[in-house]
Amino acid sequence: MCGQMRITMPLWKLRFSVSVWCAVLDDQLIGPFILEGRLTREAYFKFLQKELPRLFEDVLLNFE
């Protein structure tokens, strides 16, 4: 559930990318969370271990 957006401007040849993680659970949006720098395996693993649990702290789960 991670997306990457690349925007290229041909006039100035300016190029950048942003990695953003977000999720939809029932009617709740979780995130978005911007992953800084280049998205590497290590950076994503760190996100999964440290940031993702914090994002889910306030999520209400319905077990019906």
Shape: elongated
Q: Average pLDDT across residues?
A: 80
Question: Which strand-content bin applies to the residues?
Answer: 35-45%
Our Rg estimate from Cα atoms comes to 15 Å
Number of helical runs?
A: 1
Mind describing the biggest β-sheet? 3 strands, antiparallel
- Specify the helix fraction band: 10-25%
- Protein structure class: alpha+beta
The overall number of domains is 1
What is the element string, with H for helices and E for strands?
A: EEEH
Query: What's the multimeric state?
Result: single chain
Number of E strands: 3
Which segments are poorly predicted (pLDDT under 50) over 5 or more consecutive residues? none
Kindly report how far apart the N and C termini lie: 25 Å
Report strand order across the widest sheet: 1-2-3
Overview of the molecule:
A hairpin with a 4-residue loop joins β1 and β2 (14-25). It is built from one helix and three strands. Helices cover 23% and strands 44% of the residues. It has one domain (2-55). The chain has 64 residues and is α+β, with helices and mostly antiparallel strands. The mean pLDDT is 80.
